[in-house]
Design goal:
homodimer, alpha/beta, Nonspecific Lipid-transfer Protein, Chain A, Rossmann fold, four-stranded mixed sheet, about 45% helix
């Protein structure tokens, strides 16, 4: 019954919102009347977010302006329920109501979200909460069974879906664009190569990869750098796909894909690499990861960790944590150091590739939007909107500086066979 | 009287030590007899240090071998007092007794110290102490008066002394050697340039320098990059020297040298730079430093901090803290992040130039050794040995990985006018 009423609202609101956008003065029914207390709360919410340059347009056509500057977009709030959810918990409510089509954005979604991120940071929004939360993990501890459920939730929704918008090698991490206009396919290949060069791989060496996705890096290392690879992943679909590729490319003798948790790694290796897994590990497991690296690396061993990060310790955006990446938390650099410092690893190089992730996401989002019809057939409209908001929100987060992308290179302490300068990374 | 006796010992021990080195069996007098308990304690001390490949030779000619492998050097302990000081507090006692000529090293001093550093790390020596100490500052808080005393102690001992072994521009920080065989003069110039390029200085910009030494970087920036510089330092002698140079080079209109604490900085700047000051700041003052940077940097501002560091939080070597750098503590990266994370700065690039500092110190030590006669005239033999041990020990620390050299580049969060890649740093 409640749902029916909402549906009804959504129906009438559709028209109302559109007329609102046209600044029409269509009169709402009495039950839909916006109370002045609601407008006050909404204005307060906008103020607490630093008054982003947006217009909030209510179902009765009334608008609340964020600032005096020209609005970047209009956010249409289509019913009272959506309004209340938004006020009660803006970060969670916006996503939920957007997916339910009870909040719409008229204008560029990415620009709208970037304006919100920038405005919230400028106003210091969330800093007190972040300080309080910093010592704690935002999510419950990622035990092995929980980690498996978390990873299954995101990565096992069907390889065909990811094929719609990733590059042909299925690399689902930040690409490296030597120039910003490079095509995505090339930039992902350039990233794989950049990682290999940073690792200084030599033929015959043994490499451990933790969190290998669909296997692109492992296969690239074996094929182009002559190493053997043991690659771990707990996503069933990704491992199956990676194994097939290894067979098809005749690399199954040199690349072993293992469906298991990084904490169960066995063996000794010349190099350790992890691209895009750390986000899922959880800050409270960093020492455990450091211990795994410590027991797996030979003397003279070296490593690279590539991860989404933050400028300061912050919990994951709650809507993303709930709907997209359960258990995930991108670390700040001080948090990341918990992997290395207790074991005396020596950090040689940290590079922040934030803008490269923004560009990567521009490609993904464009490809995704070009394929929403097929996504709708595979899933449903709510799924289409969930993933649109996730990709657009991630792009906005990297553009606005809310998220970072760190590549950290390290060696065992006191190892002097390290690059003299970084010049070799940039040699033709 | 006590001193006289020691002198006497030193005299007789000289011969004894040399004969010990030749494995002579000259009989000691009864009062000088080495007790077996003393040998046991010495063996235990060696064990706690991971049994470095050294022979300890006592005044009676008896030797205690660190390991079965061929010894890198012989450490001659010339009297009972030196032995007891060494056992009671190896890190402090070694330095004190070396300076007093009651401990001698036969063989290469740097290699000997490197072997000790490596052995101690391999054995995990000091890790428990480090963990306990990590949350605390090793030294008392560096208030402004204390900071002034600390800096005076090291940097105001006479510019003529530093001229004996630094490069002609008086740069007393790690050089940058594009190739390891570059001359020191060139490598220091290359470092100044590398820092300017990392800062992306543009003509007309205003730069804040915290801890400017004898002014080489400030003058280089103004001369070659067309910026204006406000440079702070609390060393009276360094500031006086820097001002003279600015006048002589006609740069006094564009470079202002201010004898004041970094905490009293005033003004707004496009760039912040600090090369070799952070070591003296003290971990508990990092947030204060971050606040200074935060209030001094314009929107779009950027910065670079260059500092000696550690792979993990560790107090300063006690002999160095007491005799060379009172109040100093090189940070680990997680500690360094206390400057940046609370203020939402975004770390773009971290480079570890540890081996470049080892090479820099090779040059300094060689120049120093070539000038010890003049140093003896200026000071006294104990001073000569103090500085020899400090330079040799620092070289050993960088070679062995006990010390790191971090260059950290940062921007305000969300600033998108940042280098797309690091390629430009390596362009001809």
């Amino acid at each position: 019954m409640e749902q029916e009423r909402t549906q009804h609202h959504a129906g009438t609101v559709d028209a109302a919102a559109h007329s609102a956008a046209r600044a029409s003065a269509s009169r709402p029914t009495l039950g839909n009347k916006v109370f002045s207390a609601e407008k006050l709360l909404l204005a307060r919410m906008m103020e607490s977010m630093g008054n982003p340059p947006l217009d909030l347009v209510l179902w009765d056509g009334q608008a609340i302006a964020g600032t005096n500057s020209p609005p970047i977009a209009q956010v249409l709030i289509r019913d009272r329920g959506a309004l209340l959810k938004l006020i009660a918990n803006p970060e969670l409510g916006f996503g939920e109501m957007y997916v339910a089509e009870r909040i719409e954005v008229q204008g560029n979604l990415v620009d709208c979200l970037e304006a919100i991120y920038r405005s919230m940071r400028a106003s210091g929004h969330g800093q007190i909460a972040q300080k309080l939360l910093a010592p704690f993990s935002a999510a419950p501890r990622n035990t092995q069974p929980r980690a498996r459920r978390n990873i299954h939730h995101h990565y096992d929704i069907g390889n065909d879906f990811y094929k719609l918008w990733l590059d042909r090698n299925m690399v689902y991490t930040c690409a490296y664009f030597p120039t910003p206009d490079m095509a995505l396919e090339q930039a992902q290949a350039a990233k794989l190569d950049y990682v290999c060069r940073k690792l200084r791989l030599a033929p015959g060496e043994a490499v451990l990869e933790a969190g290998c996705g669909w296997g692109a890096l492992a296969l690239h290392m074996a094929k182009h750098y002559g190493v053997t690879v043991r690659a771990y992943n707990i996503s069933t679909e990704q491992i199956a796909y990676a194994r097939e590729r290894a067979l098809a490319e005749g690399l199954d003798g040199r690349v072993q894909f293992i469906e298991d948790d990084y904490r169960n790694v066995e063996g000794e290796f010349d190099a350790f690499v992890s691209v895009g897994m750390l986000e899922h590990v959880g800050i409270d497991q960093y020492q455990a990861l450091g211990a795994v690296i410590d027991r797996s690396l030979k003397d003279g061993g070296r490593g690279l960790v590539h991860t989404i990060g933050r400028d300061r310790p912050s919990p994951m955006t709650p809507w993303i944590e709930r709907n997209i990446f359960p258990g995930a938390c991108p670390p700040s650099l001080s948090q990341m150091m918990q992997i290395f410092e207790p074991f005396g690893f020596s950090v040689l190089d940290v590079e922040n590739l934030r803008l490269h992730y923004a560009t990567t996401l521009e490609h993904w989002l464009a490809r995704y939007e070009a394929n929403t019809e097929r996504v709708t057939q595979m899933f449903d409209p709510a799924f289409v909107r969930t993933w649109r908001l996730y990709l657009a929100g991630s792009l906005a987060a990297f553009r606005s500086g809310d998220m970072q992308l760190f590549q950290v290179c390290f060696n065992r302490s006191g190892e002097n066979r390290i690059p003299w300068t970084r010049q070799y990374l940039y040699a033709p």
